[in-house]
Amino acid sequence: MLNRKELDPEKSPLAAFGQRLRTLRDERGWTQDELAERMGCSGTHISAVETGRRPPTRRFSANADRVFGTGDRLVRQSQAVRHTALLEGFPEYVTHEGRAAEIRLYEVGVIPGLLQTPDYANVLAESAVKRGAITPEQARERVTLVSERQAALIRTPPPLVLVVLDEGCIRRPIGSPEVMEAQLARLVDFVELPNTVLQIAPFDMGERRPFNLPLYILTLPDRSLMSYAESAQRGHLEREPAAVLPILGDYHQLQAHALAQEASVSVINKVRKGTP
C-alpha cells in the first residue's frame, strides 16, 4: 500500500497501541474509513491514532474493544499511553500486571502502589506536585492508577502476590499520624488475604539484601517471566525470560533472609504502637 507508514511498537506505548489497532483492522480486511464508520468517528481520526499522532482516549479504546470483540484489552493498553507522569516502561508493566498469575515485588522507602491507601497515595502525589515534579493533572493520574492496579488483586481468579518491604517502608512517616496508621493497618489486612504473602526485610540484613532499588517480577498466565526495575529517573522493563531468571533467584534469596510473615506483622504492629 502506497504511503503506508511503518510502525515500531517498541518505540513507545503510543506506537504500540497504534500498531495493535492497525493489526486488528487489517486482520478483518477493513479500511480506516470502514472501521471509523463502525466506531462512530472519522477515518482521519483512525489514521491519527494508528500513526501515533493522536493518543487514544478511554472512550475511543472502549469503542474499539466493542467493535473488535477484544474485551477490555485495548482499554488496558491505552492506559500506558495516558499515564504520562510515569517512568519509562512502567505503563507497559502495568498492563501485564493486570493479567499476571503471580506478582512479586520489593520496595524501598515507601509502601508500593498495590498496597497504598487512597490517603497515602494522595500525600505522595501532592508532595510531587509541590516539588514541581508533576502537574496536578498528573497527580490525579497517579492516584487513579493506584486504584486501577489494586483492582487486579480482587479479580477472579486472583493473582498470587508476594511482597517484601524494606523496613524503611513502614518506619518512614508519610502524611499525618492518622494517614500512616491507616496505611499500616492496611498492610495487616493485606496479610489476611488468601492469595498474599508479606515479609519485612529488616535493616540488619545488611549486605545480604540483594536489591537496593524497587523491583517487580511477573509470572504471566503462560508461565513466562517479566521484570521491572527503576531508579529515581528511569525504569527498565525486561521482557526476556532468560534475563529475568537470575533476578527471580535473587528474589528467592531475599525472601529466605527476610522476616517470616508472622514476625513481619509483629514488627508492623510494634511500629503502630510506637515501640522499638
SS strand fraction: 5-15%
Helix count equals 12
Average pLDDT rating: 88
What global shape is seen? elongated
CATH architecture of the largest domain: 2-Layer Sandwich
Query: Structural class of the helices, strands and pairings?
Result: alpha/beta
Topology:
Layout: H1 13-27, H2 32-39, H3 43-50, H4 58-68, H5 73-82, H6 90-97, E1 102-107, H7 118-130, H8 136-150, E2 160-166, H9 167-171, H10 177-191, E3 196-201, E4 215-219, E5 225-230, E6 235-238, H11 241-257, H12 261-273
Helix pairs in contact: 1-5, 2-3, 4-5, 5-6, 7-8, 10-12
List keywords for this structure.
276 residues; Endonuclease, Chain A; single chain; 434 Repressor (Amino-terminal Domain); 50% helix; 6 strands; alpha/beta
Explain this structure to me?
With 276 residues, this protein is α/β, with parallel strands linked by helices. It has two domains: 13-82, lambda repressor-like DNA-binding domains (434 Repressor (Amino-terminal Domain)); 90-114 and 149-273, Endonuclease, Chain A (2-Layer Sandwich), CATH 3.30.870.10. The protein contains twelve helices and six strands. It has a six-stranded mixed sheet with strand order 3-2-1-4-5-6, sandwiched between helices. A hairpin with a 4-residue loop joins strand 5 and strand 6 (235-238). It is elongated and about 65 Å long.
